[in-house]
Design a protein that fits this description.
Length: 605
């Protein structure tokens, strides 16, 4: 494709992209939808079988409860205690009471019951039929029935559900359990209730499993207990599914019955060890997936045709204007500045052609802009020079002031006024220190010297000596800090910490140290201190740089203008993570801490 022009490259690229997109979308959508449908169907089958098993168990449980009246009847218990071969008055008396008081009400309440009978271990038997033709059985037949039920029930009296009936030609579900008499706690007989299987099948008629789907029940021996095809009831399961139905777990399995692939889902019932099974045709299950596949192919082919037609038109719309632009640029190479006719539509290509038409004009405008830029640069240069000149002029006034202070010092020496000499000398140093440099950083030792001269002036103001305790280790004296930050904190202590006057026990201590990556200088006093509420308010205002708002009242416990000035200048030099911190307790004093980076150490020396 390297030798191809732009148009075939675009067309082939679009074709490949479209084919890959359609194929991947079609394949993955079909695969994911097919898997999703299989999961939905399996979940549906699981719910169907689970619901069927649940309703079947509830159905049988209701009849189990109805047997309680028989089990608790003293007449029934006396019957099973009758001696072997009893056919006299006690037998007929028990039969009469059992029939009138128990059997006939049970038949009236539950027309689904086909018959009820009981056989004692002494070979006495009673048979009762509900709208069913049935007869009596001789002693040998009753004994055979007794042996069968004893072999298929448990001595603890729990219920057993069997696919067995004493009536030939009928499909009945048999509920049987061993019962006790009055004379002993050991089992003395068998109680049997037979239900019509047709009534039980009504529970499953509402299940819609498609045209070829069906529902059936099998016992633990692999025989049909219920099957929609009545001819298959009581017959063996097909070998293709027998073992899988009896051993199936929570998931569905596939098998072919009469060469028709089917999906089966099997669940065990609580009673009778039955297996309730749902079967659905794989063809019907795959029908939605097949529909999706066919629809995907048809829509994909139709989409491919439309996409290729759009790609053809789109490629021509791009390459056509580019050819025109290429021809015009060849003319430009020869020195012919030609204008390109613009198309009616507006897009990036049309914008490119428009830009080409403006190229010559823009070149002249760019030359003019370069000239204007040079003029502007000269103007900025002049403004900077003017600002520097103003800065030099502003230095004249402080220079005049401390020259004047030096003159006053001379007069004080001549007049032998030591106080004036000390005050003016200290004030002159402080003024010179304030304006002599534009540097924001200075050493700790220089700041301490500035504080010393301030104390000289202060001594004459308060009329007494006051010594500041400097506890700074010599290793920190060459650390750098922001200029003119220590003296305002000392002044703040005299104005607010000792608002009632300086006493002999008062002190101010200056200390410094390092914590991890921070260097700090503190000013601590033992003055009035600040209340907790007021301290929180001051910290909040310090955080928002609002401490100077209406904070000049000395009764508030701390000054504002000098403090915010110190805090802001530290932040301007070192960043927002640094600044001033306040610690205080009422009647114990206040501690102001300037926090700076340890990298400041040794920068000025």
């Amino acid at each position: 494709m390297k030798k191809f022009n732009l148009y075939p490259k675009l067309f082939l690229s679009y074709f490949v992209v479209i084919m890959i997109s359609l194929t991947s979308v079609g394949v993955f959508s079909y695969w994911s939808s097919s898997n999703e449908l299989d999961q939905i169907v399996e979940k549906q089958l699981t719910q169907v079988v689970g619901n069927a098993a649940h309703h079947t168990d509830l159905y049988i449980r209701s009849y189990e409860r109805s047997m309680v009246s028989l089990l608790s009847s003293n007449d029934v218990k006396r019957f099973v205690d009758l001696p072997e071969g009893e056919t006299g008055y006690p037998y007929y008396e028990a039969r009469k009471f059992i029939k009138e008081l128990i059997i006939e009400p049970a038949f009236a309440r539950n027309p689904e019951i086909s018959n009820i009978y009981m056989i004692s271990f002494n070979q006495n038997a009673m048979y009762f039929y509900n709208d069913t033709v049935g007869g009596s059985f001789n002693k040998e037949e009753a004994q055979q029935q007794l042996e069968f039920f004893k072999a298929n029930t448990k001595p603890d009296g729990s219920l057993s559900v069997l696919n067995h009936s004493i009536l030939s030609g009928q499909q009945n579900i048999t509920l049987v359990r061993q019962i006790r008499g009055l004379s002993s706690t050991e089992p003395k007989g068998i109680l049997v209730v037979e239900l019509r299987a047709a009534e039980l099948s009504e529970l499953w008629k509402g299940i819609d499993l498609g045209e070829d789907g069906y529902f059936f029940i099998t016992d633990d021996n692999g025989k049909y207990v219920y099957q929609p095809d009545a001819d298959k009831t009581a017959t063996e399961l097909p070998e293709a599914i027998r073992s899988q139905v009896l051993e199936a777990g929570p998931h569905a399995f596939m098998a072919a019955i009469d060469d028709k692939p089917q999906m089966f889902m099997s669940r065990r019932s609580t009673y009778g060890d039955w297996r309730l099974v749902v079967a659905m045709s794989v063809k019907e299950l795959r029908k939605p997936s097949d529909t999706i596949r066919t629809t995907t192919i048809v829509v994909g082919c139709f989409t491919l045709g439309i996409a290729l037609w759009i790609a053809f038109r789109f490629g021509r719309s791009i390459t056509g204007p580019i050819r025109i632009l290429r021809s015009a640029m060849r003319q430009t190479e020869q020195g012919n500045w030609v204008q390109i006719p613009l198309p009616e539509h507006r897009d990036e290509i049309a914008e490119l052609m428009s830009r080409y038409n403006l190229m010559v004009t823009r070149l002249s405008e760019l030359v003019d802009k370069v000239y204007q830029a040079e003029l502007s640069d000269q103007k900025s240069q002049m403004e900077r020079q003017k600002a520097e000149l103003q800065s030099l002029q502003l230095q004249i006034n402080p220079h005049f002031l401390y020259n004047t202070l030096e003159t006053i010092v001379c007069y004080a020496v001549i007049r032998d006024s030591k106080e004036i000499y000390e005050i003016v000398k200290a004030l002159a140093y402080m003024l010179r220190y304030s304006v002599q440099t534009n540097l924001e950083e200075i050493t700790v030792s220089n700041e301490l010297k500035h504080v010393m001269f301030y104390l000289v002036v202060l001594k004459h103001r308060i009329g007494r000596e006051f010594e500041v305790d400097v506890s700074i280790h010599p290793d920190y004296l060459l650390n750098s800090m922001v200029r003119l930050t220590l003296q305002p904190l000392i002044e703040n202590a005299f104005q607010h910490a000792f608002a009632d006057g300086v006493e002999d026990y008062h002190y101010i201590r200056i200390d410094a140290g390092e914590d991890e990556d921070k260097f700090w200088v503190s000013v601590e006093d033992n003055g009035l201190g600040i209340s907790e509420s007021r301290l929180e308010e001051l910290r909040e205002k310090l955080h928002t740089n609002q401490l100077a708002d209406k904070e000049n009242d000395s009764s508030k416990g701390i000054g504002g203008i000098g403090i915010i000035n110190v805090h802001r200048r530290i932040q301007m030099v070192y960043g927002e993570h640094y600044g001033l911190q306040i610690e205080s307790e009422v009647e114990k004093g206040t501690k102001l801490i300037m926090v700076m980076p340890t990298s400041a150490r040794g920068k000025i020396g």
